[in-house]
Amino acid sequence: MSRPLRVAIVGAGPAGIYAADALLKSGAAADPGVSIDLFERMPAPFGLIRYGVAPDHPRIKGIVTALHQVLDKPQVRLFGNVDYPRDIDLDELRSFYDAVVFSTGATADRALDVPGIDLDGSYGAADFVSWYDGHPDVPRTWPLDAEKVAVLGVGNVALDVARILAKTAAELLPTEIPPNVHDGLLANKAREIHVFGRRGPAQAKFSPMELRELDHSPTIEVIVNPEDIDYDEGSIATRRGNKQADMVAKTLENWAIRDVGDRPHKLFLHFFESPTEILGADGRVTGLRTERTELDGTGNVKGTGSFTDWDLGAVYRAVGYLSDELPKLPWDIASGTVPNEGGRVVEESGEHLESLYVTGWIRRGPVGLIGHTKGDANETVANLLSDHAEGRLPAPASPAPEAVDAFLAARGVRFTTWEGWYRLDAAEKALGAPEGRERVKIVERDRMLDASEGV
Predict the structure, then answer these.
(1) What is the pLDDT of residues 208-226, one digit of tens each?
(2) pLDDT band at residue 9, thresholds of 50, 70 and 90?
(3) Distance between CA atoms of residues 329 and 338, nearest Å
(4) Which tens digits make up the pLDDT trace of 199-211?
(5) Higher pLDDT pick, 374 / 130
(6) Are residues 48 and 97 in the same domain?
(7) How far is 151 from 20, CA to CA, in rounded Å?
(8) Domain ends where: 257, 286, 321?
(9) Do 17 and 27 sit in the same domain of this protein?
């Protein structure tokens, strides 16, 4: 093949950009090279980094610097504000590219099957994260009228939600939060945040640094009940074999034995409490019922039959993300992933759907940290290149790069580019400069498009 290998990547978050990087660093980058187009339904790239990471986590957002270097490469193009499959579907992608890699991630809340989950005041963590991160497709306001709030889950998303609810608007103002989020947080009445996990400290999924950051705020008092510090043989084995789990457990132990201070906002970390029902009256959340659990020797827990009703005005479930099903691709309902072998999309029969690949959370489910998607990308790309080398990728009908631009223009799609991101980036930084902030995120999709186009 005398032309470059043409690859489309659907989703310009970390997983998709890591796949582009793997392609660029492979032998495919040699003559005749590789040509990569990333399609992103948001007007801006970076996915989870922009719309899934709490605004007071600049260290994690620093990953953008590395992603920038990939998108700066001349072999890579960005098509933002392009929705799959509304603006371009699978057959159309295959007509332009030798291979298509899906890296669409996971943005919805996983369901929690307990009574009362649909009450007013019961929320999904993903929806709340989208609000405070300025996602263009969610409402501009959020009800923050509950003084006592529950967060269900013991992962990093639960910590982010609890921390944002517990911090003051003044603490968060120096971040990139848009004005509507700052205004909403000014009205936040939460003074007690209760985080619930059904298992023990050794099974918590927090990362040690994220956990310790809870205690850095001058307004948040983190409280752990000494009775919740308990381990069985399975828990001890977990701590011995997992340095991060051991660090988390040690931090929780230290908090459990200290005196409670006088910081105005109390953040309680509860373990061995399994949510069984969200309580309500007149259609609104009034509390949470949990069953006390105990360790069974293996690190798992069993119910004790002892229940507690907690007086609470809102409940946020942070029990995991779920990917959206992708039209025309096989789907595993239970895991919320595209069935695959090493990133190759496979049908129920086990046969590989030629030229189709997946990477990131759509491939393995929403687990692990951002950096873990690099391994996915490397394996997926290695298998794609193997298929290419062995002639298993059918040639597209219209491989010329300009054919894609013409197709989207003819369809009336107002797409953004990598150059447009630089303009949007500059516009957001200009908004932040008068207040001494790095940036103020633009929320409205039309305003993002205008800024990207220099309007």
Answers:
(1) 999 999 999 999 999 999 9
(2) very high
(3) 7
(4) 999 999 999 999 9
(5) 130
(6) yes
(7) 36
(8) 321
(9) yes
CA within 13 Å, CB half, 304: 15
Contact, 359 vs 343, CB < 8 A? Answer: yes
Task: Answer yes or no: do 162 and 282 share one domain.
Answer: yes
**What pTM was estimated for this model as a whole?**
0.94
Residue 405: partners with Cβ closer than 8 Å, 6 or more residues away: none
Kindly state whether residues 338 and 191 are assigned to the same domain.
no
Mean pLDDT lowest among 236-240, 241-245, 323-327: 323-327
Mean of the per-residue pLDDT values for the chain?
Answer: 95
* 447's tokens: 């305003």
Same domain, 298 and 353: no
Strands ordered across the beta sheet of 148-152: 122-124, 314-317, 148-152, 192-196, 265-270, 220-224
Q: What is the DSSP letter of 391?
A: T
Look at 442 and 371; give whichever has higher pLDDT: 442
- Token pair, residue 150, equals 């529950």
Q: How many CA atoms lie within 13 A of 430 on its CB side?
A: 7
Residue 358's nearest CA partner among 374, 375, 386, 377 is 377
Which residues make beta-bridge pairs with 221? 266
- Can you tell me whether residue 243 is helix, strand or coil? helix
As for how many domains the chain has, the answer is 2
Is 436 part of any domain? no
pLDDT, tens only, 247-295:
999 999 999 999 999 999 999 999 999 999 999 999 999 999 999 999 9
Q: Is the confidence at residue 29, as pLDDT, over 80?
A: no
d(CA 39, CA 78): 6
Separation in Å, CA 81 to CA 49, 193, 194, 440: 17, 37, 38, 20
Q: Which domain holds residue 126?
A: 108-321
Question: Does residue 180 sit in the same domain as residue 221?
Answer: yes
**In CATH, what number is assigned to the domain containing residue 337?**
3.40.50.720
Tell whether the model's pLDDT for residue 30 goes beyond 70: no
Last residue of a domain, one of 321, 336, 365: 321
Token pair in block for residue 12: 């310009």
CB 280 within 8 A of CB 119: yes
Let me know whether 283 and 300 are in one domain.
yes
H or E segment and range at residue 315 = strand 314-317
